[in-house]
What does this fold into?
Amino acid sequence: MTESSNANNHTYSLMLGTIFFSLLFLVPCTLICTFVPVKKIPTTTALPQFEVESVALEEDVAFKEKSVVEDSFEVSYSTKVQDSKKRLDEGLALYRQPYSKAAVEWFYIHLTEDRDVALAIMKEADKNDISLSLAFALAHTESEFKPRAVNTNKNGSIDRGLFQLNNKSFPNLKEEDFFNPEVSAKYGMSHLRYCLDAAGNEIAALAMYNAGTGKVRNNATPQITLNYVSKIDSYRKGIDLLFATDVLSFYETSPDTRVAFVQ
It folds into this structure.
């Protein structure tokens, strides 16, 4: 045998050995992959599932909140008409509180520039559950806060004092009683309370106070009375704005057992 043949035989032997050892490792690997179960890797993680659950939870909460809001709206709307005539008078609420009464008195004393007039009106408005701003606006329109104001009507009757009480409507009062701020406020506020109860609203009540119950009920309210009511309303709004700045902004009102309501 030649050297070339020996070399070829040696190379052939190495190739057979390599193939043999390769098959030795390949066969076990094939068997393992075929018969041993492999745990599958999930295609999704927990995060997307959590996000889906979160969205569903948010939608459920939003639906419940919407239901609560709708229920509240229905309740508030159903009672809105009933409560529309009962709005809290914050000025009177503060007047009825010991810690803020002095501030309310200070405001109205400066408004009227007369301590006796201011205290008399607040006292009687409180007794009759009448808004302070309404009471003072009425007094200003009637007499400009002048206790000795006098006006003679076309029918010969006379209006006197702070709330311009008519001598025919109050025949039992003496002349000097009309000029007493406390007496005028007492009868003026009690008469306004009567008008409020009879009319059911402020506009008609003020018209009754000026023109009489009969004319208003018979839809015969004169134009001068309508102008009178408008004047009171305008002055009252001015009081409310000034009071909100000078007094109300320093306090917080809360429900009270003796809080007045405006009709």
The two ends are 134 Å apart (CA to CA). The chain is about 65% helix and 5% strand. The longest strand covers residues 150-152.
